[in-house]
Specification:
There is one protein chain. The chain has about 280 residues and is an alpha/beta fold. It folds into 2 domains: about 60 residues, no CATH class; about 210 residues, Alpha/Beta hydrolase fold, catalytic domain (Rossmann fold, 3-Layer(aba) Sandwich). It contains 7 helices and 9 strands. Strands 1-3-2-6-7-8-9 form a 7-stranded mixed sheet, with helices on both faces. It has a two-stranded antiparallel ribbon with strand order 4-5. Helix 5 links the parallel strand 6 and strand 7. Helix 4 crosses helix 5. It starts with a helix and ends with a helix.
Amino acid sequence: MERLSVEGGKEKLNQNENDVLHMAEPPEQTPSNKKKKIIIISVVVALVLIIVITIVLVFTLKKKQDPILGPLIYNATSSNHTHTIIFMPGYSNQPEDYKNQFENKIKFTKKPDTTIVILRSPKRNITFNKSVNFAWYDIIKTPLSNFSDLDLDGLKNSAKVLENYIDNEANVLNGDYGKIIIGGHSQGASIALYQAYTGKHLLGGVYAFSGFLPPGNVTEDKRKLNAYLGFGDADDVILPSFINQTIERIKDFEGFNLYIYKNHKHHVCTNQTIDASKFLDRIIK
């Protein structure tokens, strides 16, 4: 009887061990649990996709609304394209700011046959007011009174941008750089003067509203360049004393035309557009 009792105890112990081993194993997933897991994963994936698509749409819409587009171009469809004017806006300005000026105020005989390209400046960091704005080069301080305040490297880089447009237009005009006139206001005027007087080719002319000529080698052939420089004697952005350095440098050049506007500040005034129109009418034949 004792033997049977002992064996019965061993049998019970073995049964308990089996129960412990069985409990230690992970429970098998039921079809219901698997379905719940699949649903959770699907929801997470869907949420991630929604977030990604939303981000892409936001950036796409922002890009569509971004004002940084290409240049404004007028009269590009003329069947008798004889000349091109390339104009560079000033600090914080873009082509749209000059639209009325070119459509209604600047007038010359050959305008219908002249393609007008108004370039668009990029956005960049501006030192003097710690901002980000449309500009061809950094503005270290205002008013500008000497060349040590000038971001000359930035100016030269933007002059290369202008040079590329000049070359493109020359290709359209059968390589005739004399059919290209460049101009600008403020920053744009300084870049136009720099490119016109120090660039590789003799252009048809340059006109500058409230600008100056940066340092650079002016070759002998550029002394006959047709040039208009107009500025106000009350300019409080680029001081007249600084612009006078440009005047002293090129006043004896054969093609140089100087216009000083009494009591006028830095913006483009009506008298400037009138005089620039006369200048363009004289040089664009």
